[in-house]
Design brief:
By secondary structure, this protein is an alpha+beta fold. The protein contains 10 helices and 22 strands. α3 crosses α10. It is globular and about 70 Å long. Bound molecules: flavin-adenine dinucleotide.
């Protein structure tokens, strides 16, 4: 544990963004259950604030949904509620700040995002959304297909079609980001226990969190637990007799190998989403193909369909090889919004459960760590508190 003085200096370093340190109680030992993008972000921030952090993951860090995400950092797809949009805009800013703090290399790709349609109704909706976002001060430009092809010469698209460009959007290499955050936290004293699952959370006579039991037989004394177990969050919540209602929403993601990646940006083309995934790989996803998962289609067939759609937009992907495909479950609380913060009926128990976790990881990590350390509840999270699901 750091000394009180070091703790205050650390907290002061964090751009004064969120903590009223003096008022808070030291959090003691915090078990972060799940080292995906959410757990890694919370744990990294806690570690910077001087907490004693132990990451516990049933797999290896970043191998859950975070590694099988489309991983597009955006707020343009989050207009359903103004407060949710604001949280996602804060998520984008938090990524830029994180890239400055830990270095952007190998995980942060602020390339912008191009979106277009082949159906007049969908096209009108895209343009209406772009207008709305411009009114909300979100940077957006509308190109013709010919102009968009100057940015992305490999694309097949009609020259006159309107193409919406969001220059501040990005994609993230989730597994590498998690590796960086957990690695830095461990280098400054955090502990990592991977390949072992939390199977019990013990509470004291006052109902507060006291211990976690692991599947390898270990029992750890802790003061705080953070439930960042992604799609398994409801199971972890059940360990403190809490019902966290989750929505079932599987998605299929395919990685393809290509000798040269022919695109540089996140693309929402008709029927297919495509993004680079490093120097020799591209990731494909489609909501239309997701809809076939529950109809019993084979995973390999879903991957083949994704690749066929991608070839219609980027012909150069024609010779690519499917490297891997995964059906992953979005970690979405039942009403579609994040569940982040303390659960007052179980002192010491906190949740960090969210879809769009790639976009939101850094901001949720920062706000939740501040709440754990100082008790401060940030207004950005007001609509997303766990209390809306009564225990
Ligand atoms: C198809 C698809 C596309 C997506 N596209 C986007 C996108 O474009 N942009 C975006 O922002 N978001 C997107 N998301 C959502 C985003 O990927 C997730 O919100 C995010 O990755 C969740 O991170 P997490 O840390 O909560 O979960 P995970 O990465 O799954 O991490 C949870 C960890 O908890 C561990 N765990 C579970 N139970 C236990 C236990 N009992 N004990 C110990 N460890 C445990 C698991 O091993 C896992 O490593 C997408 C998701 C899907 C499925």
């Amino acid at each position: 544990m750091r000394s009180e003085k070091a703790f205050r200096e650390f907290a002061g370093d964090l751009e004064g963004a969120f903590v009223s340190i003096g008022s808070g109680k030291r959090p003691g030992r915090v078990a972060v259950i799940g080292a995906g993008v959410l757990g890694a972000s919370v744990g990294w921030n806690l570690s910077r604030l001087g907490a004693e952090v132990v990451f516990i993951d049933a797999l290896q860090p970043g191998e859950g949904v975070t590694s099988w995400s489309f991983a597009w950092v955006n707020a343009s797809n989050k207009t359903v509620r103004r407060s949710y949009f604001a949280l996602n805009v804060a998520g984008m800013a938090a990524h830029r700040e994180l890239a400055a703090a830990i270095g952007p290399d190998s995980w942060w790709y602020p390339s912008g995002h191009l979106r277009w349609a082949d159906d007049p109704t969908v096209e009108m909706k895209l343009l209406q959304t772009a207008e709305l976002l411009a009114r909300w001060d979100y940077r957006v430009e509308v190109f013709t297909g010919a102009e968009a092809r100057r940015l992305e010469p490999a694309l097949t698209m009609p020259s006159e079609a309107p193409v919406v460009f969001y220059p501040d959007e990005a994609w993230v290499h989730g597994r590498r980001l998690v590796g960086r955050l957990v690695g830095q936290a461990v280098a400054s004293g955090a502990e990592l226990r991977s390949g072992t699952a939390v199977c019990d959370i013990g509470t004291g006579s006052d109902g507060s969190v006291r211990t976690v039991a692991l599947s390898d037989g270990t029992r750890l004394d802790v003061d705080v637990v953070v439930n960042a177990a992604g799609p398994s969050s409801a199971d972890v919540a059940a360990l403190v007799a809490r019902q966290l209602p989750m929505r079932r929403e599987p998605g299929v993601v395919t990685r393809i190998d290509c000798a040269q990646v022919p695109i540089g940006r996140v693309l929402h083309a008709p029927h297919i989403e495509i993004r680079p995934d490093g120097d020799a790989s591209v990731v494909l996803h489609s909501r239309e193909i997701d809809a076939l998962i529950d109809k019993g289609e084979e995973t390999s067939e879903l991957a083949r369909m994704l690749l066929a759609s991608a070839r219609n937009v980027v012909a150069e992907l024609g010779n690519s090889r499917i490297a891997g495909t995964r059906i992953a479950h979005r970690p979405i609380p039942a009403d579609g919004f994040p569940s982040v913060g303390a659960v007052p009926s179980v002192p010491g128990y906190y949740e960090a459960v969210s879809h769009s976790g790639i976009t939101l990881g850094p901001v949720i990590g920062r706000l939740l760590a501040a709440e754990i350390v100082s008790g401060s509840r940030d207004a950005l999270l007001a609509d997303f508190r766990p209390e809306r699901f009564p225990s």
